[in-house]
Structures are given as C-alpha cells and as structure tokens.
Design brief:
Elements: E1 4-11, E2 18-20, E3 25-28, E4 31-32, H1 51-61, E5 66-69, E6 78-94, E7 97-104, H2 110-116, E8 121-122
Parallel strand pairs: 3-7
Antiparallel strand pairs: 1-2, 1-6, 2-3, 4-8, 5-6, 6-7
Protein name: Thermonuclease family protein
Organism: Sphingomonas montanisoli
Length: 137
C-alpha cells in the first residue's frame, strides 16, 4: 500500500487509536497493550500496569510533549503540544479505524518502540510476517 502521513495530535492508548490532524484514527499493527480501564482483554496480550503511565511513556518514546490529558477510560486522550509527523502504511481496518505500521520522522517503527518502552508486547496473530521479532525491551 502507499504510505501516508499522519500528523499525530493525540493518543487514546498505547496501541491506538492515534488521532491524526486530518481526522484519521490509527491502530498500531502487531502489538497488544493494556486497555485504559487497566484490563487485559481475553486472548489479547498486554503489559499489566497503569495504563495512564504507559500512555505517557509511549508519548515520550515517540517524541511527543503532553499538552493535556483527559483520563476517561472510554473517551480519554493524551493531547500533544505539537503534532508528531508519522509515516504510516495501512494494513486494513479495525473498529472503524485504520490499522497500520507507522514510523517516526527518524524512521523508528512505533510498534517496535512500544515494545522497547515495555508498554506493549508483540501480538503474533497480527504480526504474521515476524516484523516485530527483532524488537526487544
């Protein structure tokens, strides 16, 4: 698929959706993360812990500065002080949002960054190519 640019302005949870300035919402491909209510969904891998701290750690890992944070488990977001430029490649859709591999301007894969930051784990079911096997915390 053709790569596209997302100017990321907010993050719901570690694996998405990432909110882009143009209204697109992206779920990161190949990883599982803790839900904002602190739960790990059945049959989905995650890293137990404080989901709000994990979301802030993910924002820092991709170079975002937090402008404000709303803490509702269902509708909360962490808003960035300035947009973060991401280059993404769509892989499909999930729950009315794109699923995609995304990278920062300096080429860091976001799914791998989340694994290395210890806020997500590889979800083999959605990484059939093994792209994330090289990513270690």
């Amino acid at each position: 698929m053709t790569p596209f640019i997302c100017l990321a302005i907010a993050l719901h949870d570690v694996d998405g959706p990432i909110h882009c300035a143009d209204g697109a919402k992206i779920r990161l491909q190949g990883i599982g993360a803790t839900e904002m209510d602190g739960a790990c969904r059945p049959n989905q891998p995650c890293v137990p812990g404080d989901p709000f701290a994990q979301r802030r750690a993910m924002a820092r890992a991709i170079g975002a500065t937090v402008a404000r944070e709303t803490r509702s488990p269902s509708f909360g977001r962490l808003h960035f002080a300035r947009p973060i430029r991401l280059t993404c490649e769509a892989t499909g859709t999930s729950h009315k949002r794109l699923t995609a591999w995304c990278a920062t301007a300096d080429g860091r894969d976001l799914s791998c960054t989340a694994i290395r930051a210890r806020v997500a784990v590889r979800w083999v079911r959605y990484d059939k190519s093994g792209r994330l096997t090289r990513c270690r915390p």
